[in-house]
Amino acid sequence: MLEDVAARILMVEDDDAIAAPLARALTREGYEVERAENGTDALALAASAPVDLVLLDLGLPDMDGLDVCRGLRASGFDGGILILTARGGELDRVVGLDVGADDYLSKPFSLSELLARSRALLRRSTRPLGDAEAPPATPTTLGAPAPTSGGLRVDADARRVWIDETELGLTAKEFDVLLRLDAQRGSVVTRETLMAEVWDENWFGSTKTLDTTVGRLRQKLLDGGAPVVLSTVRGVGFRLEDVAGHA
Ligand code: CA
């Protein structure tokens, strides 16, 4: 299980009183922990070594944590990002902005809750962790499943998505939303279903995060030339449809 593999966690936290005990706890759980005390170091560390999960404080000495989050995504980081914020009011700001985070925790949080959220995000990590069962890195076209329809294929087991022969890079939440919509292509999937199944029962907060995730996913599908349309059904949910002529 996850405890047996060295998942790498980057903790971005300037407060020693939080960082030191948290690092000890995570190490005890079997994670490899790197710490950055500011945003600049965080971006440099994430760029120089593989990272599976980022725990991100928002109040950093040199820059806004939200900009660190945006910077990580802009540089292609597709692991999990869990934002830790001291002020409850900041959560509204976080979920209202399209920064690319996967989940949020308000300080103070319990260690068990942090570990549960971290495990959930690591399970969805796209980087194969170091267990013997993980497939070796292969060119993206090898072992790709046969096209299902419309040139967009979603491989649930490998957690990978292709548009024709090109792999699409998605965050964990974007992938989960797409997988759920793809399972019911052409039909509406309700907001409640997506919140319950993708964000699970631990989520209690604004569902704006669903809209921002869908917005990013829609843009990526568009940019990648996927022959599908991700429609918003106002007040109900979302629908993934094949573009006419490609089904
Ligand atoms: Ca801080």
In brief:
Strand 7 (160-163) and strand 8 form a beta hairpin. The chain has helices at residues 16-28, 39-48, 65-74, 88-96, 111-123, 172-182, 191-199, 208-223; strands at 8-12, 32-36, 53-57, 80-85, 103-106, 152-155, 160-163, 166-168, 188-190, 228-233, 237-242.
Plain-language structure description:
The chain has 247 residues and is an alpha/beta fold. It folds into two domains: 2-131, 3-Layer(aba) Sandwich (Rossmann fold); 152-242, Arc Repressor Mutant, subunit A (Orthogonal Bundle). The chain is built from eight helices and eleven strands. It has a five-stranded parallel β-sheet, sandwiched between helices. Strand 3, helix 3 (65-74) and strand 4 form a beta-alpha-beta unit. The longest helix has 16 residues, at 208-223. The radius of gyration is 18 Å and the shape is globular. Bound molecules: calcium ion.
Order of helices and strands: EHEHEHEHEHEEEHEHHEE
Looking at the overall shape, the CATH architecture of the largest domain is 3-Layer(aba) Sandwich
Label the overall shape: globular
CATH homologous superfamily identity of the largest domain? Response regulator
CATH topology of the largest domain: Rossmann fold
- Classify the helix fraction into a percent range: 25-40%
Number of domains: 2
Adjacency order of strands in the biggest sheet? 2-1-3-4-5
Total of DSSP H or I helical runs spanning 4+ residues = 8
Q: Multimeric state of these chains?
A: single chain
Hetero ligands? calcium ion
Average per-residue pLDDT, rounded, comes to 81
Give the uncertain stretches in residue-range form.
130-149
Q: Report how far the terminal alpha carbons are from each other.
A: 39 Å
**Broad CATH class of the largest domain:** Alpha Beta
Strand content: 15-25%
